[in-house]
Structure formats: C-alpha cells, structure tokens
C-alpha cells in the first residue's frame, strides 16, 4: 500500500479539527489530503478528484454526514470508497444509519494520531479483506490502537524538582501507570511517541522550556493535541491560572498539593478519558457485529442453501419418472416442496435484514398468485390432515381467469406460507380455511379467512416483531415478516376480526401485473 500515491478527503466544518487531521494524515504519508468544510464542497471535490478514502464528520451546517455517505453509496463511481465516520456524538441510531450505508469505521472524538492512523490503514486494507482477519488483526500497533476500558490509565508527571516528582509519583503509583520527565523536551518526546499518556500533570516553572511552552507545543502536534493537561504549580495568581486554561489546560492545581483533592481530580478526569474509550469500543462492537452478521449470513447461504437446492432438484427429477407408484410420487413431491420451504426460509432471513437496513432492491416480475397458493395448500393438507379442515379458493381458477401480480415470487411464497399456515394452526377441528380472490385495475387482493379469532392481548401488536400467542416454539416473526415482505413489494396487508362470527381475515393486496 503506497500512501504517498493516495488521496484522502477530510470533511469537517471546524477549522481547528480539520487542520489537525490534515496534518496527521500528511505525517502518516498521504500524497494528497483534500480538506473541505461542508457536504456541498465534498460532493464537488469527489466529482473532480480520484479519492481513495474519506474521513467524514457527522454534524455539519448545510447537511449532515449521512447525506454525503448516502450519496456516495448510491453513486457507482464512489460506492466502494472507504468512509470513516468521525464524531463526538453517542447516538446509537447514528451508528445504525452509518452501518446501513456501509461505513468502514467509526472514530470517536477526541482521538490520538495513532488511533487515526490505525483506523485509516485498517479501512484501506479491509476493503477486500476477510471479516475474520479484520476482527483479529495481526499488527500489534493495530491492536494497541483499540483501547479497552479495563486498561490501566497512564499518567505523565513533569517537574524539574526531584522531590516534587517523588511526592506525586508516590501518591498515584498504586492506581495508575506512572511515567515522569524532568524537563519539557523529555515530556514532549513521551507525549509524541507511539504510546502517549492518558493525562499529563505539568509544572509551569521549569528551566529551558516552561509549562506554558510545553502545552503550546503539545497542542500544535497531532500526536499530543488531545491529551488532557493539568497544571500543578506553586503559582497561585489568577492571571497564571487564566493563562493556563486559555492555553488548553483542563485544570489547575496549586502547591502545596492536597493528596485527597489531587486523587479525586485525577480520578474524575480519567473517567472522562475512559468514557471516550468506552464510546469508541461501543462503536467498534456495533460495527463488528453488523459485519459479522453479514458474514454469518453468507456462510449459512453457502453451507445450507446449496445442499437444499440439490435435494429439491433431485426430488423434482425423480418425480418426473412416472414409473413410480402414485403414493411414492406424492411423497417425493412433498420432499421437493419441503426443501423449497427451507430454501425460502433461509432466503427470508437475509431479505428481512436487507429490508430492515434499507439495502433491499426489488426486481419485480409477473407471476401467478394462484399457483403459489395451490402449492402451499398442497403442503398444508398433508401437514394438517389430522384436523380435517376444508380449504378452498374463491373463485376457483378458470382457464382464462388467472390472477397475475407483479413482485417477487419467492418473497410472496414466504409471506403467504406464513399467513396460510397461521390460519390452519388457528382453525378449529373440522372447520374451514377459505382463500378469496378479487382484483381491480391496480391490485389483486387475497383474503385468507379462518375460524377463530386473534387473542385480544396481541391484536394491537399483531404485526410487531417477536409477537406470538399460544405457540411454545413460535418465533414471533411470521406476521411481522409477512407485513415487511408485502410492503417491500409495494403491497398492503390488513387484519380484520369478526368476534360475532368468530372469524379472522387477513387481506394481502399486491400490484397487478399488466399483460
């Protein structure tokens, strides 16, 4: 990977943060770094430059980062460019949206130059990398750049007086990893190293380089600009405190130090550092789990769907041999249908996930909804033969009266299978399940009607996910998936309950196919 031949674009509305990130990426070796301040300029820059990676702020005036990400993912020219979201926001919905549009990584502000470098390299390498290699990186620097909340915090103490150093080290060494420096130059070397401290306790009055100069140099260097600094000094005048805080220190403690006050201040400040680490870890976990889900789905499809397709195909070939007895041919047809059901179930989970995350693309085609329902009823008659149910279609199919709809036949099979199976399960012994058809110029309506009514306690949540009643092994996905799959095909679905006649009806409306 030749970074000096690559172009990075930074989209950040805050000048200071944008300049810091530009400097950090240049120091990491990028040949070109293109800074822009808003989403409009970002899209213009993409139009006129070959960009290899984008670092994107979430909240910006005149449009947020997700709009840029959405536009990039819908443009064939830009859709594969790695995008790292850089944000100080903790909204889980934001993370979910970013994952939906295939964000490469998320960095929580504030961050160190090392973290930025590791995440950028990881995003560039991961474009075609196996997921499990991403989750278990071999590079030690990559591993150390992903901090864990359980790590012991490190503190750098800077003071030119040995007794002061010894005193502060003694107070804090039992709870933290302590490093120390006797002058400003040594302190800067540690802060700008590959392993900077989490917090700096800095004296002001030192020879060669005083504390103000050290702080200024830290804030000007991308590796140390985000490290929190607390001045610990004998200077008590208000103007010194103001100068320190204006320079970027987050606290100011005067000597002689009160041990209890020092420990509490340090504890509280590091709690903020750890909170930011936890936030970054949370982003990483959410992102990793989303990618892992995609990977598991790929494995399931490859390892389960393939053999089932083979079973279905073999059963179909055997069924074509008319030399077998009729009873055996019936069972072979059932094997084929059940294999097809399993294939559809596997596909269903993948499709539901894509619909829920906004990544589903419908490729509609015309098909006979009569044929689908006939296949389902054949299976239901076998599965529920013990209930002696009367199942029929109204009106029956006639040679020139077949209802064709426009949609996905596999998804339609899945949703109708769930609904008709529910109707057979709910119907009382020796009652009926009726399938009614009607159409107008726009829609074909299929109404599934059975005896028995939906329990009152789940009527308001009937279409919600994981809602089930009276089934010890029910997943609660049947009606939810039926609704989602219908709507994804431009259709509508409706529940109707008649308590007086003890009937439940579900009507599925699908776009009619124009001949």
UniProtKB/TrEMBL annotation:
Which Gene3D superfamilies does its entry note?
Answer: 1.10.287.130, 3.40.50.2300, Histidine kinase-like ATPase, C-terminal domain (3.30.565.10)
**Top-rank lineage group of the source organism:** Bacteria
Presence of keyword Phosphoprotein:
yes
GO terms, molecular function: phosphorelay sensor kinase activity
Q: Response regulatory domain spans which residues? A: 7-124, 154-270
- 4-aspartylphosphate PTM positions: 57, 203
Q: Do you know which InterPro entries this protein is assigned to?
A: CheY-like_superfamily, HATPase_C_sf, HATPase_dom, His_kinase_dom, HisK_dim/P_sf, Sig_transdc_resp-reg_receiver
State the protein's name: Response regulator
The record lists the organism as Shewanella holmiensis
